[in-house]
Write a structure and sequence with these properties.
The chain is mostly helical. The chain is built from 7 helices and no strands. The protein has one domain. Helix 4 packs antiparallel against helix 7. The longest helix is centred in the last third of the chain and has 29 residues. The termini are far apart.
Length: about 170
């Protein structure tokens, strides 16, 4: 068995339908203003905006992690952690717009994708707090945990995009 062979099984887990309903509600709120929905869907770009927007938080947090391995780079890593947090918000909003186009099985996978990324974001926020209040080592470790969790979310996002063709019909 290959490492990711079990991901499609998430699409058959009915217990994920309740949190999927919560994401449906959030998606409806974000998608309500037509101009905002069009931009977050990527219409001006001719391509779904979510895959483009996730690059900045991913890059910022991975870069912060590498800087944490080097001496005298604490300040830069802290700035990158903050940049990743700020840039995650539009990426989340665009993901919620894409979510509205998914079928039931894909929504179940997307729930786990969103949960992993939400945990990652929470870790990065805690990391930033600790970095800014003098608990550098703790902040670095929490940031690492967030980046590892982000990798899980990324694998699931890749499965959604490449195996389930999520967002392929946007815009």
């Amino acid at each position: 068995m290959r490492p990711f062979d079990q991901i499609p099984a998430l699409g058959r887990v009915g217990v994920l339908d309740a949190p999927a309903g919560v994401l449906d509600s959030l998606s409806a709120v974000i998608s309500k203003p037509p101009a905002l929905r069009r931009v977050l869907a990527g219409e001006p770009f001719g391509h779904s905006a979510h895959p483009m927007l996730v690059q900045l938080p991913i890059g910022a947090w991975v870069s912060a992690g590498w800087l944490d391995c080097l001496p005298r780079t604490e300040r830069s890593a802290t700035v990158l952690t903050a940049v990743g947090i700020a840039s995650a918000l539009p990426a989340v909003a665009a993901g919620l717009v894409d979510y509205s186009t998914l079928d039931k099985r894909s929504k179940r996978v997307a729930v786990v994708h969103a949960a992993a990324n939400t945990i990652s974001l929470a870790c990065q926020i805690a990391s930033l707090r600790d970095r800014m209040t003098g608990r550098l080592r703790r902040g670095q470790w929490i940031g690492l945990a967030g980046t590892i969790t982000l990798s899980v979310g990324g694998v699931l996002g890749g499965h959604l995009a490449h195996r389930l063709a999520a967002g392929a019909d946007l815009p």
